[in-house]
Write a structure and sequence with these properties.
With 142 residues, this protein is α+β, with helices and mostly antiparallel strands. The chain has four helices and four strands; from the N terminus they run H-H-E-H-E-H-E-E. It is elongated and about 65 Å long.
Length: 142
């Protein structure tokens, strides 16, 4: 019975975001937005469920090639912000693969600092031959 009462009281509460937007005055039809105003979001931003997948091949330690490939591969996503990146470094040994993934993730910040400024990165190992990595980039929704 206590559970039912708790569910009823929780269901009786209104949506706080809808209530907040209902109290704001609506702009008139002839009002022009000021150039400084920016559109407001209706709630907290979230992360897209489908990642952008990339493949990078560069010799271990070749940071300039890593940066170049990452800059080219992420060019079409310019203006977006990454939430987190999973990087799978390929190498015969787990330690080497994770070290390669770490190098790739450092190169992300060099290739597109504005895109990956607050992104969380994780380094993983994916077996295989050294010198390649698979990335899964999860962007924030627009």
């Amino acid at each position: 019975m206590l559970l039912v009462l708790a569910l009823v009281s929780m269901g009786d509460r209104g949506d706080p975001l809808a209530a907040r937007s209902a109290t704001r005055p609506l702009p008139s039809a002839d009002a022009k937005p000021s150039p400084r105003s920016s559109p407001t979001q209706a709630g907290p931003r979230s992360v897209e469920r489908k990642p952008v997948k990339l493949h990078v091949t560069a010799a271990t330690g070749d940071t300039s090639r890593m940066v170049s490939q990452l800059r080219t591969a992420t060019g079409r996503y310019r203006g977006r912000s990454a939430a987190f990146v999973l990087t799978f470094g390929q190498a015969p040994e787990p330690g080497d693969g994770q070290a390669y993934a770490r190098d790739i993730n450092r190169s992300l910040h060099k290739a597109r600092p504005d895109m990956f400024i607050d992104a969380t990165t994780r380094d993983f190992w994916n077996g295989g031959v050294s010198g390649a990595a698979d990335l899964e980039i999860y962007f924030y929704t627009r």
